[in-house]
Amino acid sequence: MKDWVTRLDDFLKMTGKEILNHSGSISYNKAIEKAKTEYDKYKETLKNELYNVEKDFINQLKTTEKKIAKKE
Hints:
The protein has 72 residues and is mostly helical. Helix content is 71%, strand content 0%.
């Protein structure tokens, strides 16, 4: 198991970031609160964006509309 810890540490060191060697100073509750806040911000940015399936559906409607207009 120590082998894997060493390998993982070596891999993480390649990112150039410092590796946390202790439990940290943020409480569990503060971490959860921060995560929820960040997730809410993320969801807000996506609120008005369409999913790919919705974009495809709109494109299909436009294509169908053009075909119908040609027939008329």
